[in-house]
Structures are given as C-alpha cells and as structure tokens.
Amino acid sequence: MRKTVVYPGSFDPVTYGHLDIIKRAVKIFDRVIVAVAHNSEKDPLFSVVERVDLLKKATKGIKGVEIDDFKGLVVDYVASKNARIVIRGLRMISDFEYEFQMALTNMKLSRDMETIFMTPRESYSYLSSKLIKEAASLGADLKGFVPGFVEKAIKEKLR
Ligand code: ADP
C-alpha cells in the first residue's frame, strides 16, 4: 500500500529547514504532499501562488514530492487526499507548545488523523521563515538558509 503523508504549513518562504524535513519524509513515505495553507498567516510576504512556485523549484528532482495548496481545515484536506498522516517539523522547545496544541486539536477534530513530528538536522534547527525575512530586511546574506533563487525572491520583495 502506498503511504501518503501531508506536510502542511505557510512556507513563507521555503527554507533549508523545510527541505531537510521533506528529504527525510520521502525516505519513509511513498508520497509526500507539501501543502501551502491559504489561511495560516495574516500578512504573508509571498502569495500562495508564489510560495507554491518556490517550493516546486526547491523540490525539483526529489522523487515522491507533490506541491499543493489548501483552504480550510488540515483534517479535511488530509481526508480529501485519502491520507491520514500529517508531518510537522519540530525545531526547538519553543515549537512544542503550539505543535502539541495543534496535534491534539486535530486529534479531536478527526479520529483518523495522526500527526508525526520530525526534527531537522541540528544545523537547521534554529531556522525559521520569519527570522530569515527579518534578517533579509536588515541586509543579511541568506546563503546557507535558503536556496539562491529564494534569497533573490525575498530581496526583490523587500526592495
Ligand atoms: P507554520 O505552518 O506554523 O506557519 P511554517 O510554514 O514555517 O510554519 O512551517 C511548516 C512546518 O515546518 C511547521 O511544522 C514548522 O515547525 C516546520 N519547520 C519550519 N522551519 C523548520 C526547520 N528549520 N526545521 C524543521 N521544521 C521546520
């Protein structure tokens, strides 16, 4: 049986942290659907279409990955894909409270869905899209945090 998992998030924009999780996930699951949420952040830097596009470029060549977007509840989207597993990344303890709340809420909303947490390698464990955007606005070099074309896209947005 082909195992499908959904990796939902804002991905505003994709970082090497997200990519590390995706690369780990495809080793375990047959099909990894990376799903950009329409409603997860109020004031995103990139539109959903742009975020999907950057993710597609960043995951080109990784077998077993699909990029999609969704509106509404994660549990409904996961069911619509005939899947029952959601992957979330856990970086620091600071992620834990929010992720734990969300996993428990989703468990309450759907009896069929399971959340699996994956950790990135240590060197990416502090990376966040939010911090990268802040650093970029202050003129930081983003090499090592995001692919070159993502850095270019961020800098164009902030110009
Ligand atoms: P959110 O969905 O909370 O808006 P993101 O889109 O930034 O967050 O991230 C989507 C998922 O990827 C979340 O589970 C988040 O914890 C995880 N994630 C983000 N950055 C990293 C990273 N550097 N390493 C591991 N997981 C990460």
Tell me the strand percentage band.
Answer: 15-25%
- How many distinct domains? 1
**Integer-rounded radius of gyration:** 15 Å
Report low-confidence residues grouped into runs of 5 or more.
none
* H/E topology pattern: EHEHEHEHEHH
Q: Could you please say which CATH topology applies here? A: Rossmann fold
By CATH, the superfamily comes out as HUPs
Bound molecules: adenosine-5'-diphosphate
Shape, per Cα inertia axes: globular
Question: Mind telling me which CATH architecture this is?
Answer: 3-Layer(aba) Sandwich
Please give the order of strands in the largest beta sheet: 3-2-1-4-5
Helix segment count? 6
Q: Percent of residues in helical segments?
A: 40-55%
